[in-house]
Structure formats: C-alpha cells, structure tokens
Amino acid sequence: xxxxxxxxxxxxxxxxxxxxxxxxxxxxxxxxxxxxxxxxxxxxxxxxxxxxxxxxxxxxxxxxxxxxxxxxxxxxxxxxxxxxxxxxxxxxxxxxxxxxxxxxxxxxxxxxxxxxxxxxxxxxxxxxxxxxxxxxxxxxxxxxxxxxxxxxxxxxxxxxxxxxxxxxxxxxxxxxxxxxxxxxxxxxxxxxxxxxxxxxxxxxxxxxxxxxxxxxxxxxxxxxxxxxxxxxxxxxxxxxxxxxxxxxxx
Amino acid sequence: xxxxxxxxxxxxxxxxxxxxxxxxxxxxxxxxxxxxxxxxxxxxxxxxxxxxxxxxxxxxxxxxxxxxxxxxxxxxxxxxxxxxxxxxxxxxxxxxxxxxxxxxxxxxxxxxxxxxxxxxxxxxxxxxxxxxxxxxxxxxxxxxxxxxxxxxxxxxxxxxxxxxxxxxxxxxxxxxxxxxxxxxxxxxxxxxxxxxxxxxxxxxxxxxxxxxxxxxxxxxxxxxxxxxxxxxxxxxxxxxxxxxxxxxxxxxxxxxxxxxxxxxxxxxxxxxxxxxxxxxxxxxxxxxxxxxxxxxxxxxxxxxxxxxxxxxxxxxxxxxxxxxxxxxxxxxxxxxxxxxxxxxxxxxxxxxxxxxxxxxxxxxxxxxxxxxxxxxxx
Lengths: 250, 378
Ligand SMILES: Nc1ncnc2c1ncn2[C@@H]1O[C@H](COP(=O)(O)OP(=O)(O)OP(=O)(O)O)[C@@H](O)[C@H]1O
Ligand SMILES: [Mg+2]
Prior knowledge:
The complex is a heterodimer of chains A (250) and B (378).
Chain A: H1 2-5, E1 10-19, E2 22-32, E3 37-41, H2 48-55, E4 63-68, E5 72-73, H3 79-85, E6 87-90, H4 102-109, H5 116-120, H6 126-138, H7 154-168, E7 172-176, H8 184-197, E8 202-206, H9 210-216, E9 219-224, E10 227-232, H10 234-239, H11 241-248
Helix pairs in contact in A: 4-6, 4-7, 6-7, 8-9
Chain B: H1 2-7, H2 12-34, H3 45-71, H4 78-97, H5 110-114, H6 130-154, H7 159-178, E1 190-191, E2 195-196, E3 199-200, H8 204-230, H9 232-242, H10 244-249, H11 254-280, E4 282-283, H12 290-303, H13 309-328, H14 333-347, H15 351-361
Antiparallel strand pairs in B: 1-4, 2-3
Helix pairs in contact in B: 2-8, 3-8, 3-11, 3-12, 3-13, 4-6, 4-7, 4-11, 6-11, 8-9, 8-11, 9-11, 12-13, 12-15, 13-15
C-alpha cells in the first residue's frame, strides 16, 4: 500500500464519508502522479465535490487515508495548512472576494507569507507586481483590474478564480467545473490554459462538459455513488457498458 | 518599519480627519480659556466637556467599525472594553484622592472604608502610579478580548452566535461590577475624583487639556486604523468579511486575523473609556449595560460602516441628537434612536458618509470598503 503512495502527489485509499447515514464517498481510492492531469466525471451527486472537500480539509473522512506528496496525512490538517502545503482549489460556484478589485483578489492569493504581522507590514515588491500583471494578462482581466470583482460576469469570475489559483503557485490544483457558464470559445481557451498549467503542476479537473474533457485529452476517472466506476482514456470509459448505464440510467 | 506603516495610513481622508481633530484640539480649548465669556466664539467649559465626551464616543465607534465594518464581527459588547478602560482610569483617580476623602483614610477609597475593609485589595495596588494605570487601561480590555477571541474564533463561532457571546460578556460584567464585594464600588461606581496627574480635575485648564488629549488620541487611533485597513492585512480582513472560508482555502489563518483586529479594537475602546471617565467624573456599572454597546453599533451604522470616518461622524451626530432630545423631549429619544437605525438600514445602507460620497460623485459607489447595499444591518 505505501509502495503505491510513494512517489505520488495525491493518494486516496479506501476513503469513506457519510452525511447523516448517506454515504457520499464510498471506499474511494485514487492515485495521482506528480505532473499528471486527471479529469473526473460522473453524474450529479457522484461525490466529485465532496472528494475535493476531503482533500482540502473542508470535510473529514470517516475512514481511509489521504496522503499528499506520498507521506503527508491531510486528514490531520486544517484548510489553511493544506493550502500552504501547496494545494489550491477552484470552487464549483465561483467564489471571489466581491468587494475587492480584480487586482486585489489576485494579490491576496499571491504566494507570500500568510502570517498576521507579515501581511500587516507587507509592501508589494516589483517582482510581485509583475507576477500580478502577468496573471491578469493570462486570465484576460487586465482591463478590469481596478474594478470590484462583484461586477464580473460568471465566466470572468471563473477565470479570476483560476488566476487566483495560479497566483498561489500550488503543486496540486483541484479545479471544480471550470467551464460552467462559458461560451464554446471560452471553454476551449480554458482547456488550453489548464493544459499549460499542467505542464508544471498536477491538476485534477471535474467537469460535466464532455467536449471540454476531450479537449484536455487526459486520463479520465468516472465516479459514481462515491466510488470509482471506471478509469482510462475518455474513449475507453465511454465504451464501458457500466458507465453508459450510469449516464443513460439517470 | 513602524513609521513607514503609519505613513501608509495617511490617505486623503485620514489627512483631513487628523487636520480637523488637531484644529479642534487647539481651537476649542483656546476659545474656552482665552476668549471672553460674552464672545460669540466662546466655548463654555460645559460645552467643551460635553464635546470631549463625544470624542471619546467617537473613539469607541472607531473601534467598533474596525471589527464590524472591516471584518464582519458584529460586537454587541464593546461597551465592556470601554468600561474596563474607564474603571482602570477610575481606580487611578480614586487613589489620587488619598486622605482627602470623606473618611480621610490615606490608603483606602471611601467606599472601602464604608464597607469596613481593612486593607486595599491586591488588584488595587499599583493604580496610584499613572503609568501603571495607563498600561492597565490597554492591557485589561486587550487581554480579556484576546482570551474570549482566542476561544471563540478558534472554535469558529461567527455571526449571531458571536454577537450573543459579546452581549453575554458585557452583561456578566455588569452583574459582577454591581456587587459590592467585587471591590469596584458596587452600583455607585467610582467618583468624587480630585485630581489627575497632579492637576485639579475640575479646573478649566485641566478640562481643556483632557479635551485636547481626547482629540489627539482619536487622531492617533484614526491613523492606526487607517494604516491597518489600508495594509494587506486590512484586505485580508475584508476578504474574511466577504467570504471567510474562501480566505482559509488560500492559506490564511482566519482566526489569527480576527484575533488581531479584535484585540486591537478592544484596546482602542479601553483608551476611549479612560478618556471618558475624567471628563464625566464618574464610572459605574451602567457603562456595561448591553444597550450601551448596541448604541455604539448604531452610531457606526448611522455614520457609515466600513469607512472609519463614518464612525466618528455617526458618534458625534447621534450624541448631539441624544443631548438635544433628552433635554427637549426625553421620552421620545429611544424611539427616535430606533427609528433612526431602521431608517438608516433601509434607506442609507452606507450611512451619512456613503450618502455624501454618492452626492459628490453622482453615482452609487462610495469608497466604503464596498459593503453591499442592504448588508449594513446585522
Ligand atoms: N455537507 C453535506 N451534508 C450533507 N450532504 C452532503 C454534503 N455534501 C455533499 N452532500 C451530498 O453528497 C452527495 C455528493 O455531493 P457532491 O457535491 O460531492 O456531488 P458532485 O459529484 O460534486 O455533484 P455535482 O455534479 O452536482 O456537482 C450529494 O448527494 C450531496 O447532497
Ligand atoms: Mg460538484
């Protein structure tokens, strides 16, 4: 068991969690290699978001192991500690700091000391400024930089959240439904962006949009009722009769 | 580092506020002491003391705005920190009376002699020294806030539950300070002060100095609050207010940020109380009354939450109103205050300051750390 964990960036083994007797995650096991991008699909309520909640410390699993970097037990850490280890997350419902400007949203996420007195006396360095500019450019929000984030469209908020994710420079990115609410062109761009990110970082993407998943062109894990139903290329899992049954049967 | 930090607090609004307060600190005492009484510009000692009291209320309001406006912590117990600072100052003033009390005991304040106590309780020691009392003015509220905040924020108590805890805190202190055996003068509190720092406390010059001290302390606290809110930490606070769990997921330990601003705010409230007591000449348990804390929240809402300057404006305006009403129509005041709060919540979610910002710009957005409309109410 530890043999598999070794060398992996994320390792889930026999993880289960119940909400009021309902098993949202049921004996889930999953291994992600460093530098790998994985797409996770599955019908509504399959447990995709809950899996991310477990990895990021929002939800404690009832049983099972969750290891980061082969050895760090994530079930013992809180959200901030996990984030500072280098695990970043984009939420299904885009959540940005509405009353802050677009630029401040990125600046807050920027990799830097998170201590109270570090932030109290913090002065933005030229290096940080150029990193912020670069990210704003990447997410195409340079023109909106001094506007409150509240005024962004749904798609722009998605991008801002991806920008905040980039700013954290995490080693592992968990991206929940990044293409929701985007046009086809935006969706394609998002796929390109994620592929570029995946060149250096490990990524897990949850998405319902099959065109998007195909554009990513990576290994796919199908989740159903809290456990892994199938794993492989998109074509392979699409041909899997059990997957077809789950998707058609709902 | 500290100088650079404080300088960062001098934005346009802060420069104006400091200038106005410094001018008040100079001109009001000058007019009181130097101008003849029949001059139009003469400020009477009564008016000076009254306005000095408003300035201490403004400092209390500033401290409330820091936690409520910027971090979303609705404290309904800030009056407790104010009162504790006031009691620390009151204890110093009591010790200054010395043998001039009614019972002429060189060491024990009158109320202790009256209760036939034989010696000074341990916690009254040291309060004969001004520096020690000043330290306690900040430490006692600061430590209480730190301890309560440490438990509450670590267990992630938020929203209404936190407000209830703060309200319970001030209520518990109210009951405790009412007791004679607590050693703080029971329901009479501490009063009959004679002098402060060796100066007769009733003398016009002393009153003028206390007024100036209130204005300058308020200016100093304003610059600190402005620097804190303008810093990256201030932005984290607003992030916590708007989306607490999101802030955690980008790696900030929310509870530590809350604890910092909460404790800082309590220290400011304590200083306000310490300046209040020598000007009004008494401190008693009624300062712990939960309604006093609620009033402070209303001042902030009326002036404009999340603007700092709004807290000052709200405290002064509402208390002018209160003074006028309680003189002219005493029975109406509470209704007027309630009506004002409801009216502001419904029609002026960003308070007086937000209204002025809107009138000046002709748009809907004031620079009020962006509290969404309709969220000014708790
Ligand atoms: N905190 C919670 N309390 C109770 N039930 C929960 C909680 N979180 C998730 N669930 C339940 O767990 C199941 C899995 O939810 P989850 O959000 O992980 O699904 P999902 O795969 O992300 O679905 P979707 O595609 O709709 O986002 C759902 O039935 C959901 O109602
Ligand atoms: Mg989901």
